[in-house]
Design brief:
By secondary structure, the protein is α+β, with helices and mostly antiparallel strands. It folds into 3 domains: about 110 residues, D-Maltodextrin-Binding Protein, domain 2, CATH 3.40.190; about 120 residues, Alpha-Beta Complex (Dipeptide-binding Protein, domain 1); about 230 residues, Roll (Dipeptide-binding Protein, domain 3), CATH 3.10.105.10. It contains 17 helices and 19 strands. Helix 8 packs antiparallel against helix 11 and helix 16 runs antiparallel to helix 17.
Length: about 550
Amino acid sequence: MRKIKKILKYLGLTLACFGLIMACQSNTPNNTSNPTGSSNNNGRVSIGTTIKAKTLDPADSYEIAGLNLIYNVAESLYTYKLGTTELEPLLATAMPTISEDGLTYTIPVREGVKFHDGEVFNAEAMKFSLDRFTQNGGKPSFLLSDTIKEVQASGEYELTIVLNKPFSAFTSLLAFSGACAVSPQAYTIGKGEFKPNELIATGPYKLTSFNSDSVTLDVFPDYWGEKPVNQGVDVQIYAGNSANLYNSFLTGAIAVAYQTFAPEQITNLLKDGSAGKFQTIEGAGTVVSYMVLNRNQEPLDKLPVRQAIAALIDRNLIVNRVLQGQSDPSYSMIPTVFKASQPIFEQEYQDGNVELAKKLLTDAGYSASNPAEVEIWYPSASKTRSGVANTLKAIAEQKLDGMIKFIPNGVESATAFSNLGKGIYPSFLADWYPDFLDPDNYVQPFLQCVQGNESEGCTQGGAQTQGSFFYNAKLNELIDQQREEANPAMRNEIFTEIQTIVAEEVPYIPLWQNKDYAFAQNGVSGVVINPSQQFPFWKIKS
């Protein structure tokens, strides 16, 4: 009897526990039973994001969300080896043959390729696509229209492109996702002739649906290359709502989450990822955050003041305190993913070099009784940049004895960027998303000056547009030289000289470069983040 009572007692406890478990499960979202985020194990992959594409027309798409989808559905002549900035052929079969004068590019294109509508791809189709990109007048059209003089189909499977002037980074432009092949039967050439809700190209996926809250991609059965390892992709868009993306990932409703979480959410996800609850994928970013210094406004018209600010900047403090360790300190406007990047600012000023900052300010005639006052402007919606501005203010107050006074000011983004080139702001905190992956894109748009002089600064050109108004005749020569230099080693030497001048003259101060994070459920494989922030869906399996 004692044994039977004991058994009944344990049996009762077991049934009670089982009841509790079932009750807990009934209060949990159904999708928790699907920890990989795949639907009914049908081989499809679900991906969550907060960013929504405005258009899928390659000739008009100029933002991350649209270009990421285009990258997975369409193909350009060249692309980058996954996870790198190293170019390789895609719809081309080899790297271009370049004439001695650097003006003519001859490119063999791939045979046996079909568009999603069944049309055959050839050199004429590629010519049509590039002509459409340049002539329809979309947002990114300047990337090619400013450079290309003429595109010719010099053979059924040979393309010849003639440039207006030599440009050593031109092949990188041909890797821009928007410069992809689209079906000549589905599109037209004409100013403003766009199809924002369609995409008929040659890539591994066909666009099945494009809605405000979701995108469906199905595997293209006639794809010429290696087929995707999954059976299709379902993109769930949590437009601007990182909380919903965060909760959906935690409950297993989606297999992969990428762009964009709040910093505190990333901190929690990284912690849980380290504990083995799911996978964390980190990528080297190419977005650079920096401080613009307007050389036409007092006291920044004095070189020692600009240099003092460069010396005072404590990047590690900013990264740890404001960015929660989710970025890397940057000592060049050119990100470290490029061989050309040199940490000249670190070599020249170190980090948080208070003594050097004091000396430079003293040499410029400033003191506690006569402080240098510098307004720091930033987009008011950016908590990060507000935090950086106030951190710089605190550093100056605590460590420089009042020799420099930073005054943070927020301004609405649209107003800020329309005013930047007018010289309204003494200094400004900004970031740069590259148009294409080449060091030139971190140099020419910031430093080249078409018109200007030493006394007035830059009155027309990149330096004026970006708000520094910096003018340096030698720098203009170096920018032109690197654009024409075909030898990579010699070109990198020119970039080193450019970075040295920037560190000496301080029109901009690099602060940090981003890290990219994606999170995947355990059991998901093949998640890769490219430096371009584009995400190859075809490698993901769940």
